[in-house]
User: Which sequence fits this backbone?
């Protein structure tokens, strides 16, 4: 491929890295980074976590983490594991996740993360595909769930439960407290080289079996260090970790990056308790996905709907003035006298919203899926600094990101340090750099299909304007209707989901005469809406209600072409969950699984029409 039209990083937008930062060159490997952090900051707070037994928040220093990692390494050495063997972990975000990761990698083993809520059949596929020898789980409930598949532990010789297993008497199962070494041990540094395999991360794709992405120590560390060259983060920062560590965005940006900078990481208790944890921890940094902001906005809108209209107008004015102020600061708009209102509007409105995030938030790194422009405009207008980025598990994961002083929310930002991008055939975004994966586990053919001439083919269509990258669609996720018209379901779904009444949406119509939608209604919004419209809460399946909801969706889609309209819809109040296998851990809809679940309703919506 000709070396032309390649977008390279702009050194002028890089920030100065604080002296407390450990670069990827100094760390060399992931356990090398950990040992250096323990050496430099032994008494600094590494992690904060909630002790369920005593109902209190606790802290661990780097020195204490080093001691626990050494104990774990001593226990692992007794398991007859050989260098390069795979160790899987299926646990929530916690200190133990970090301890096992560092212990495993420090012995030259390979870590394979699994999602805690994954189905038994999918977990079985991953454990067998990677030939895992040891598995770490949260508790006995996970053991029971996994045991539903008789072949789940075919390759696994030991299962370690972080929580006490109680009276369970299973040959392979042991609780962490009984497994760990009781002796005092030293950290072992027998890891693989920088360019050797560190982890296999199975992508939670929306179609087919997950693929095992092979990432080296250098793949991940160079990407984490690029993050610190893009956003100014110090050892005084605090991260609140709530996205699963099994997802590469959280692992790189919410675990290794803070370790490089010396920042503290607090583990949130759960998504339902996130609002309380934000107030308690008061983080300066968040790694998040768009759905979190969408849910918060839904709550805000619910509150505003019950307030006098004047309050709603005041909120809207604050967002409008805040947005003008943001655009002025970014150098894209002229000064407006209305900006003089900001100090007052900040005290009356914006500060109260910012306090919901703890009041100290300096930046929210948002990825995993595109954030609706309307949502980002609202929160940025309220003074919440959202930095949308883009990447893939295959790129460790970040390819591009917005910066605090160079932020166009509608874009996925500027190319990351150490990465190059270009636009290939069919407007596909291509990327290359030291962060690009080693390949897919057990799948050289798929590796060759995705990486060609050194370029990673992302599968996303994009354009570049003034150095900023914009995603314009997916190469595969295009619906071609029976009349030949093409629509992007993701764009339409985003527009509908911006409506607080609809919690989840999936549009279909491939080779069909018209488009249909499956939607999950937001329960509280639906209660109010049905009461206002004068029908019972359980009447959402009736034809007259469908027509009312179709008119509402039509308003949501007013900017789309006439052929891109929904003609029929099926509604439900039951959310699609990870446990059901209907969405990925980053909340993306698994289209084939949802189609399978609602096949009868889909057929009914097309009844009388030929395919």
Assistant:
């Amino acid at each position: 491929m000709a070396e032309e039209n390649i977008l390279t990083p702009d050194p002028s937008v890089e920030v100065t890295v604080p002296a407390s930062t450990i670069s990827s060159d100094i760390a060399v490997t992931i356990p090398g980074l950990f040992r250096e952090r323990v050496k430099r900051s032994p008494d600094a707070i590494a992690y904060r976590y909630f002790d369920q037994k005593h109902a209190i928040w606790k802290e661990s220093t780097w020195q204490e983490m080093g001691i626990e990692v050494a104990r774990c390494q001593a226990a692992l050495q007794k398991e007859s594991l050989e260098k390069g063997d795979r160790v899987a972990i299926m646990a929530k975000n916690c200190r133990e996740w970090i301890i096992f990761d560092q212990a495993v990698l420090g012995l030259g083993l390979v870590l394979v993360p699994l999602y805690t809520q994954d189905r038994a059949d999918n977990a079985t596929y991953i454990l067998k595909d990677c030939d895992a020898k040891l598995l770490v789980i949260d508790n006995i409930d996970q053991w029971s769930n996994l045991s539903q598949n008789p072949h789940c532990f075919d390759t696994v010789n030991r299962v370690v439960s972080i929580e006490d297993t109680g009276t369970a008497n299973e040959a392979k199962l042991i609780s962490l407290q009984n497994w760990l070494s009781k002796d005092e041990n030293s950290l072992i540094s027998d890891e693989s080289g920088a360019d050797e395999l560190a982890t296999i991360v199975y992508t939670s794709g929306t179609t087919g079996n997950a693929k095992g992405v092979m990432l080296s120590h250098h793949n991940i560390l160079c990407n984490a260090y690029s993050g610190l060259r893009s956003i100014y983060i110090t050892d005084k920062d605090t991260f609140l970790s709530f996205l699963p560590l099994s997802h590469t965005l959280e692992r790189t940006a919410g675990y290794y990056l803070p370790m490089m900078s010396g920042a503290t990481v607090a583990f949130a208790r759960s998504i339902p308790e996130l609002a309380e944890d934000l107030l308690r921890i008061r983080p300066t940094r968040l790694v998040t996905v768009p759905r979190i902001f969408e849910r918060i906005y839904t709550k805000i809108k619910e509150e505003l709907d019950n307030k006098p209209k004047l309050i709603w107008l005041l909120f809207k004015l604050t967002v409008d003035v805040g947005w003008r102020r943001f655009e002025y600061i970014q150098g894209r708009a002229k000064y407006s006298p209305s900006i003089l209102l900001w100090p007052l509007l900040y005290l009356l409105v914006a500060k109260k919203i910012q306090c919901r995030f703890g009041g100290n938030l300096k930046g929210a790194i948002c990825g995993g899926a595109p954030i609706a422009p309307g949502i980002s405009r609202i929160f940025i207008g309220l003074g919440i600094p959202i930095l949308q980025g883009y990447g893939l598990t295959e790129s460790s994961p970040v390819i591009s990101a917005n910066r605090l002083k160079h932020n166009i929310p509608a874009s996925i930002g500027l190319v990351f340090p150490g990465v190059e991008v270009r636009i290939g055939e069919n407007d596909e975004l291509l990327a290359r750099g030291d962060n690009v994966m080693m390949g897919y586990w057990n799948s050289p053919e798929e590796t060759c299909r995705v990486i060609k001439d050194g370029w990673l083919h992302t599968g996303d269509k994009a354009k570049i304007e003034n150095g900023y990258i914009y995603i314009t669609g997916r190469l595969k996720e295009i619906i071609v209707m029976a009349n030949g018209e093409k629509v992007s379901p993701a764009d339409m779904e985003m527009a509908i989901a911006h409506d607080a009444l609809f919690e989840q949406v999936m549009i279909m119509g491939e080779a069909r005469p018209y488009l249909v939608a499956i939607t999950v209604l937001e329960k509280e919004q639906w209660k109010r809406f049905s009461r206002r419209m004068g029908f019972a809460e359980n009447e959402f399946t009736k034809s007259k209600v469908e027509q009312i909801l179709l008119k509402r969706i039509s308003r949501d889609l007013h900017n789309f072409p006439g052929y891109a309209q929904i003609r029929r819809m099926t509604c439900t109040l039951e959310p699609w969950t990870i446990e059901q296998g209907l969405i990925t851990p980053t909340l993306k809809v698994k289209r084939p699984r949802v189609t399978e679940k609602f096949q009868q309703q889909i057929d009914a919506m097309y009844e009388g029409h030929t395919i």
